[in-house]
Amino acid sequence: MASSTSKIPLIYRFFFQTVEPLAAVSGAYLAHFKPNDYLEFTAPPSMLPKTAPISPLTQLLLSQIAGCYLLFALNLAIVLRCTSDLRCWRMILLGCLLSDLAHMYAAWEAMGTTVFWAVHTWRSEEWGNIGALYLGAALRMAFLGGVGMTTASRHPSRRENGNGT
Asked: In angstroms, rounded to a whole number, what is the distance separating the alpha carbons of residues 21 and 116?
């Protein structure tokens, strides 16, 4: 296989293999071990209970979300380091982009159209959550669109993409 991660620009490698996995592990920790903090960070204040403790059902769901975050982190931090196959990178990042779109839809649904698009009204929590989501999605779209990639890595030959013919 002639393709190599060295053909992948540093910004993509740094963000996808380091920044996002660390953020995902942080989110997993908060969701599982500090559910009130996690909910405050991810939900609009109007949706949060004022003093109610976390229900067992909510804790179950947050622990499952934590598991999904860990899978996300491992795919990015480990799998993308273990392969130089650009098709693999593209498929993983496409899956992550689909997850981003679902996350954006959930945020839009919770925040409402007016608040979702009015970034000047966001709290720091929205910037940390939705702003980071926009950044990750934009970088994924740029990668999938070949922005900053060399011609060889943008259009690998059949031999480079693992077909061996």
From this structure: 25
Give 131: exposed, middle or buried? Use CB within 10 Å, 0-12, 13-18, 19+. middle
For residue 95, the number of C-alpha atoms closer than 13 Å in the C-beta half-sphere is 12
Instruction: Taking the CA atoms of 164, 140, 31 and 49 in sequence, report the sign of the dihedral they define.
Output: negative
Tens of pLDDT, residues 73-108: 999 999 999 987 899 999 999 999 999 999 999 989
pLDDT (tens digit, 9 = 90+) per residue, 99-153? 999 999 998 998 888 888 888 888 888 898 899 999 999 999 999 999 999 865 5
> 138: Cβ–Cβ under 8 A, 6 or more apart, which residues?
none
What is the model's pTM? 0.82
For 164: left if phi > 0, alpha if psi spans -120 to 50, otherwise beta; the answer is left
Type of residue at 27: G
Residue 130 has a CB neighbour count (10 Å cut-off) of 20
CB 87 within 8 A of CB 160: no
Rounded to 5°, angle at Cα 20 from 16 and 21? 95
Write out the two tokens for 69: 């975050």
In 3D, which of 82, 81, 88 has the Cα closest to residue 161? 88
Report whether 96 contacts 146 (CB < 8 A).
no
